[in-house]
Amino acid sequence: MNLAPSSLAPPAPDPLAVTRFVQAQMGAGGAPLSRGTQSRVYLYQDQSGRYVIKTPRDGLVGACIGRWMMLREWHIYQRLEGLAGVPRCHGLIDGRYLLLDFVDGETFRSAQHRLTADDPFFDRLGRLITALHARGVAHTDLKRKDNLLVLADGTPCLIDFGAAIQRRQGPLSRTLFLMGRQFDRNAWIKLKYKGYRGVSPDDLHHLRRLPIERVSHWIKRRLRHLRRAAMKHRGSDQP
Ligand SMILES: Nc1ncnc2c1ncn2[C@@H]1O[C@H](COP(=O)(O)OP(=O)(O)O)[C@@H](O)[C@H]1O
Ligand SMILES: [Mg+2]
Q: Which pLDDT belongs to residue 3?
């Protein structure tokens, strides 16, 4: 059977309708699905399905850096096209609205309490990370537990490629990619064992914490400690 290309293309929303929708949401101060430091994520639905639209923040920063970040993320989604475990991307509309399939899953943050280290989820996640690297992409932000979704059947899905690194020609790019790849492997261990304690010898040989990770971990711990001390101090001041 000879199928016309249009019948092979996945269903996708009308770009004009998407633009109108986002602008109406922004204008009316509609509640986004998520509001990050650099972006807003809106849920969008039409007869072809459910989608999310990731947009840069408004203002000057959003107009410049935000748009550049969306473009970067779109290029990464193009490189990952067809990879199971990554949402399908339907393009970058108007140079700023990144349109993705909506993934009906729970964030790892909310699912983590029932996922023990022996859950098959982690083997699947490990294979997904390896497949990602084979496409020349390192995610680099997997320790953030909202960037990983857990589907109802227990499979993982990776989102938010805003900080991802693509492998390109040249020694600098290659070095950055290798560092990013190691970040992802370390993140996998940290998520699986809820830290770096009790790691099995089999997994231990994947772990190589880079100095930059150790320093940032140390800073975060100090900040947490200071915050707690400040709260305690404030509490003891109250009558
Ligand atoms: N394709 C998607 N399907 C379902 N939820 C999503 C999708 N993309 C993003 N989200 C939701 O929006 C949140 C923020 O998206 P993300 O891409 O991580 O933006 P940010 O760069 O602001 O962190 C995610 O943690 C998730 O809850
Ligand atoms: Mg995120």
A: 41
